[in-house]
UniProtKB/TrEMBL annotation:
Protein name: N-acetyltransferase family protein
Family that this chain belongs to: Belongs to the arylamine N-acetyltransferase family.
GO MF annotation, one: acetyltransferase activity
Family matches, as Gene3D superfamilies: 3.30.2140.20
Organism: Plectosphaerella cucumerina
Source domain of life: Eukaryota
Keywords: Acyltransferase, Transferase
Length: 293
């Protein structure tokens, strides 16, 4: 769906990128839209912990209310679905697709959503829902493309078969990252070059939202990008469990270690501008993810 003018204005105001600041070049504008989105809207799993129902909808009006009106974040399907609606409202041509995430020694099932945007006959990966390991900027779908990530890390995109494929004539897009120069490249995510429909995401959303072994179900997490003066990603502030840290420029600094729920709620407001209601705060009581001090 596309947004009304009032919704569009509210969205752009929320990410601190009003139309007066938009460059005329569509690729430059897309880069800045993605950067401002990443810097204002956190990648987070809070609704699977701080909630009386712990269910996530991909309905766009509901996502707009949660993320824009109530200043929250979400995980990949929530964030990329909402961002896709923003881009369509601004006249971009795109479709959404899906992929798998690399977990230590195996690929997950289809559980990640990305957007593919076409500008002047060139297609770009645009992903605002992969947290601190994400691509951070529009990446042209060109085999072997390398690009900066959060310094000193780099990313790479390859159109390739996977060792796990039974038919090696298949090709997928493989996204890898390198922690620093001369470090080994590590698989992060792969995605398909085919359009997914809303019904596909409704199915894909069930496992990460409900399975006890899901990383999102097991962990309270949040991640938000820091921008430099040129509005390029320069660092990230993240929360995992009770630990809040800042990474970037080769540094990794622990900002706070939360021992209690009161401390974590305060940290969410201080570092991510997220204010939880009393009902939301009570939602975590009795869960394994609750901090008991």
């Amino acid at each position: 769906m596309s947004f009304s003018q009032a919704q569009l204005d509210a969205y752009l105001t929320h990410i601190n990128f009003p139309p007066l600041l938009h460059p005329s070049d569509p690729l430059s504008r897309l880069r800045l839209l993605q950067a401002h989105h990443l810097a204002r809207i956190p990648f987070e799993s809070l609704s699977l912990h701080y909630s009386p129902h712990r269910l996530l909808t991909l309905d766009i009006p509901s996502l707009f209310s949660k993320i824009i009106t109530h200043s929250r974040g979400g995980y990949c399907m929530e964030l990329n679905a909402l961002f896709a609606s923003l881009l369509r409202s601004l006249g971009y041509t795109l479709f959404s697709s899906g992929g798998r995430v690399w977990e230590q020694d195996h690929w997950t099932g289809l559980s990640h959503m990305i957007n593919i945007v076409t500008i002047n006959n060139t297609r770009y990966l645009v992903d605002v829902g992969f947290g601190s390991g994400g691509s951070m900027q529009p990446i042209p779908l060109i085999h072997g493309t390398e690009f900066p990530q959060i310094p000193p890390a780099r990313g790479k995109l390859e159109h390739t078969a996977l060792p796990e494929h039974a038919d090696h004539s298949q090709r997928v897009w493989l996204y890898s990252t390198q922690a620093e120069e001369n470090a080994p490249w590590e698989r992060r995510m792969m995605f398909l070059d085919v359009e997914f429909f809303p019904a596909d995401y409704a199915v894909m959303n069930l496992s990460p939202m409900t399975q006890p072994q899901s990383f999102f179900v097991q962990n309270v997490l949040a991640s938000q990008v820091l921008l430099d003066e040129e509005k390029r990603p320069s660092g990230v502030v993240s929360m995992l469990g009770g630990t809040v840290r800042r990474k970037g420029g080769g540094e990794d600094v622990v900002l706070v270690e939360c021992k209690t729920e009161e401390e974590r709620v305060e940290a969410l407001e201080k570092y991510f501008d997220i204010v939880l209601s009393e009902a939301e705060r009570n939602g975590i009581k009795g869960l394994p993810s609750e901090l008991k001090g």
